[in-house]
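Workshop exercise sheet. Pairs work together: one partner reads the sequence aloud, the other fills in the structure field after running the prediction. Swap roles for the next sheet.
Pair: D.N. / O.F.
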Amino acid sequence: MNLDEDGKRDICQLQGVIRSSPPAGRNEEKGLSLVVRIKRALKRRLSVRAEKRIKDAISSTFDRRRRGAKPPEAIPGTQPSQHLNAGDLVRVRSREEIQATLDRWRSLKGCGFLDEMAGYCGTNQRVLKRVERFIDERDYRLKKASGIVLLDGLLCSGTGTTGRCDRACFFFWREEWLEKLDGPAGPKS
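Structure field:
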């Protein structure tokens, strides 16, 4: 059992790892552009709530300038949530179809689409399970989710912004980015 400084039991293994791990060295940041280093520094220092307030303020400014713009959910061809279940065979929509659903933050209903996910566009995959709750590691709170699934075997190995990561987390996939395939389940492609 892991205990924190106050003698309370840790909820997640990650919290103990974070306390015992030194921050990533400056050597990893040497090859990054100044903009990426500034974004990283801000992200480390801002709370989730402050980050959301900043994004909302920027969004409202842009929205006032672009009055006729449609929200991503109103773009033609975007499917409403289809309630996928574990074992369902799906096709990941094309990159263009997915990008048509994204806002300026490259997300749909708060779920981000990473460049690393684009490699799976157009492939057939199997749903591993629905995501109903998850720990948000930015503020260590349990969050509820709807319309998000995990696809079997599709794991993150790091991003262009954060660099290589050995944790192997599942990507979160919005149901709108997936098309359910009818018929017998075949092999993944």
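Discussion prompt: Residues 22 and 124 are 40 Å apart (CA to CA). What would you look at next?
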